[in-house]
Structure of Oxidoreductase SadH:
Amino acid sequence: MTAVAGKVCVVTGAGSGIGRALALGLARRGARLALSDVNEAGLQATAADAGRAGGGAVHTQVLDVSDREGMTAYAATVASHFGVVHQIYNNAGIAHSNTILESEYEEYERVFGINLWGVIHGTKAFLPHVIASGDGHVINVSSLNGFLAQPDMSHYCTTKFAVRGFTETLRSEMRRDGHRVGVTVVHPGGIKTNIASAALNEARASGQEITPEDEQRERLYNEKLLKMDPAQAAEIIIKAVETDRPRVMVGNDAKLVDFLVRMLPARHQTLFAAAERRMRK
């Protein structure tokens, strides 16, 4: 038996990437699952694989995490369906690339709606149920970019820094108020997902001009930076939850960057810029 066996675990963004891997990892441990995503085909594929993985019941719903009322209704549906909710994995997220100067407000609003408000919506909607379970956990996925700012990524970095602060505040409140709720913020490094390509495709669809540098950056991420298998990342995250770790770095790259940012607060951006230039060659 593990810490998640038999528990009701909610995973947003479960149709692909880390969310899908989390669903399968939790299913193998015997969890009951409530899975959501905006992509119905991906969601149903995950649900089918989770069922075959030997877990308990699987509930699915197409959901846009930026929809506050939709998330509130979803939490009520899941709690009614299972009778209890133990864990919420606020994982859904998107990336976007553009300079601050050239970015439209709509770009910020879309990324903020999913990456930050989605986490807040999920936490607020499910927290009363998680507290009521008597043995709950809230897991919010930030990023390596929750402590490292990079050019052309202000939308993403702003949300991931904010997720870290929001989650650490939640943890302090749960401890102060005596609730039996663990709280974990997750900082993945380069995970082999489609996030870089999806960001570029979304920029194209919105009419943003795509430069050769943008395409080169996509190749850099896909070929050199996004290396860890999502299943491995999910295992690290779930083990961190099982051991009630407040903060988890996923991958050696995340650990190294975290160390350098803390040790070299005035110089780390220069070092990372130089490293990126070398990798582009």
Q: What stands out?
A: Residues 28 and 225 are 28 Å apart (CA to CA). Residues 8-253 form a domain with the Rossmann fold fold (CATH 3.40.50.720). Confidence is low (pLDDT under 50) at residues 220-224. Strands lie at 8-11, 32-37, 58-62, 87-90, 136-141, 181-188, 247-250.
